Automatic annotation (TrEMBL):
<dbReference type="GO" id="GO:0008483">
    <property type="term" value="F:transaminase activity"/>
</dbReference>
<comment type="subunit">
    <text>Homodimer.</text>
</comment>
<feature type="modified residue" description="N6-(pyridoxal phosphate)lysine">
    <location>
        <position position="281"/>
    </location>
</feature>
<keyword id="KW-0413">Isomerase</keyword>
<keyword id="KW-0663">Pyridoxal phosphate</keyword>
<protein>
    <recommendedName>
        <fullName>Glutamate-1-semialdehyde 2,1-aminomutase</fullName>
        <ecNumber>5.4.3.8</ecNumber>
    </recommendedName>
</protein>
<dbReference type="InterPro" id="IPR005814">
    <property type="entry name" value="Aminotrans_3"/>
</dbReference>
<dbReference type="InterPro" id="IPR015424">
    <property type="entry name" value="PyrdxlP-dep_Trfase"/>
</dbReference>
<keyword id="KW-0963">Cytoplasm</keyword>
<dbReference type="InterPro" id="IPR004639">
    <property type="entry name" value="4pyrrol_synth_GluAld_NH2Trfase"/>
</dbReference>
<keyword id="KW-0627">Porphyrin biosynthesis</keyword>
<dbReference type="GO" id="GO:0030170">
    <property type="term" value="F:pyridoxal phosphate binding"/>
</dbReference>
<comment type="similarity">
    <text>Belongs to the class-III pyridoxal-phosphate-dependent aminotransferase family. HemL subfamily.</text>
</comment>
<dbReference type="InterPro" id="IPR015422">
    <property type="entry name" value="PyrdxlP-dep_Trfase_small"/>
</dbReference>
<dbReference type="GO" id="GO:0005737">
    <property type="term" value="C:cytoplasm"/>
</dbReference>
<dbReference type="InterPro" id="IPR015421">
    <property type="entry name" value="PyrdxlP-dep_Trfase_major"/>
</dbReference>
<comment type="pathway">
    <text>Porphyrin-containing compound metabolism; protoporphyrin-IX biosynthesis; 5-aminolevulinate from L-glutamyl-tRNA(Glu): step 2/2.</text>
</comment>
Length: 441
């Protein structure tokens, strides 16, 4: 139950009217581009409220939510224990700009769940965490060059808005106006899951490479796993050349497994750990909160102990940390990720069966509470392959599902998310809608 009184919302504006109005005062009508539905066309839904597995739009239409605010809402919306923790924290004060015990508790909770971590610095967004992790890696190694992979997103820091150059010897080109070429001249962009390319890059630049940053399961080109041999080889190359390996777990952290994606790779590669981990989304439970974390030795480089500057007025915010802590406590209960993973697999198996029955080429993958499906017969291994997916078919599927009350990510290059609030009936309803839509696709 929601303890906050809520004024009866009369549906005074349609989604289309709100979108029209929004575009007057906000560029494109949205505060983050993917919300604008540009990839799929049509009118974005203006959301008025959410509860459990559902969200409602301004027209009173209910949707089963498979975005979950792009990852944070792993428990579903308005989980009673989380809501209680947030309300209690808010009553005690919104922000102090001074240390609090709850920040320490959250850092300790993260350290307790992820063995590679000895210290944590809390920030407010994944962008900030990724940007700071790179600064830390450069500061700790005294080197400038960084490697990222095509299709991986690590936030919108200048040095990361890059696409591959024309050859291996050349560094990247900015993908956004406003980013000078000089700012990305140290960023090398390689193909995901391509062992030969990363070997060649280390051969050419090994002594200058500060870090390799990766989404271990890429969720910003739909859902693509880094292969075990690929991750293992990067680990070896980093060790040989003195570079740091950064796992961007903003999306995968505490969602694909309680120990995050790195726990899955540690099972396949004995002793595996990244050097620096980046978190966001789930650790804030829907509040603006993110973190970067590493060994004590590497974290010593950060101000006020070391020369790498980093700061934030709202960092470790007391309401956000309450939300994150309550969320982590719930998902740490025995069997949580197993149960969530079973729901996700049931959804994916059902979608695949519906596509097969309709004769539609389709492939699926999932881990814990994160999934991907593709209108292609085989799972893609990199960005180029993802982008060969049948765009028109995806768009028809997206809109067909939306009309039937199922809210999927409005772009084929985004992963999907499940929550613990999804019931069997919700999954059945989703699959019935999919069967219907795919039969017409
Ligand atoms: C969402 C995301 C980010 C950026 O986080 P924001 O909170 O949106 O700034 C960074 N890395 C990955 C892998 C993400 O999915």
């Amino acid at each position: 139950m929601n303890p906050l009184p809520r004024p009866e919302a009369a549906a005074v504006s349609t989604n289309a009217q709100l979108f029209e109005r929004a575009q007057q005062s906000i560029p494109g009508g949205v505060n983050s581009p993917v919300r604008a539905f540009r990839a799929v066309g049509g009118t974005p839904r203006f959301i008025t409220r959410a509860e459990g597995a559902y969200i409602w739009d301004a027209e009173g239409q209910r949707y089963i939510d498979y975005i979950g605010s792009w990852g944070p809402m792993i428990l579903g919306h308005g989980h009673p224990a989380v809501l209680e923790a947030v309300l209690a924290a808010a009553r005690d004060g919104f922000s102090f700009g001074a240390p609090t015990e709850r920040e320490v508790e959250l850092a300790e909770a993260i350290i307790g769940l992820v063995p590679s971590i000895e210290q944590v610095r809390l920030v407010s967004s994944g962008t900030e965490a990724g940007m700071s992790a790179i600064r830390l890696a450069r500061g700790a190694t005294g080197r400038s060059k960084i490697i990222k992979f095509e299709g991986c997103y690590h936030g919108h820091a200048d040095a990361l808005l890059v696409k591959a150059g024309s050859g291996l010897a050349t560094f990247g080109h900015p993908t956004s106006a406003g980013v000078p070429a000089e700012v990305v001249q140290h960023t090398l962009v390689l193909e995901y899951n391509n062992v030969e390319q990363i070997e060649a890059a280390f051969q050419a630049h090994g002594k200058d490479i500060a870090c390799v940053m990766i989404e271990p399961i890429a969720g910003n080109m739909n859902f693509v796993r880094a292969s075990v041999p690929f991750v293992k080889r990067i680990r070896e190359l980093c060790d040989q050349h003195g570079a740091l390996f950064i796992f961007d777990e903003v999306m995968t952290g505490f969602r694909v497994a309680l120990g995050s994606a790195q726990s899955l790779y540690a099972k396949a590669i004995p002793g595996f750990t990244p050097d620096i981990s980046v978190f966001g989304k789930v650790i804030g439970g829907g509040m603006p909160l993110a973190a970067f974390a590493s060994s004590r030795r590497i974290m010593q480089n950060l101000a006020p102990l070391g020369p790498v500057y980093q700061a934030g007025t709202l960092s470790g915010n007391p309401v956000a940390t309450a939300c994150g802590l309550a969320t982590l406590k719930e998902i740490s209960k025995p069997g949580f990720h197993e149960a969530l993973g079973a729901k996700t697999r049931r959804l994916m198996t059902g979608l695949k069966a519906a596509a097969d029955a309709a004769g539609v080429p389709f492939s699926v993958d999932s881990e814990g509470g994160m999934f991907g499906f593709f209108f292609m017969p085989e799972l893609p291994q990199n960005y180029q392959q993802v982008m060969t997916t049948d765009q028109a078919r995806f768009n028809r599927f997206f809109h067909g599902m939306l009309e039937r009350g199922v809210y999927l990510a409005p772009a084929l290059y985004e992963a999907g998310f499940t929550s613990a609030a999804l019931s069997d009936a919700d999954l059945d309803a989703t699959l019935a809608a999919a069967k219907d839509v795919l039969a017409q696709a």
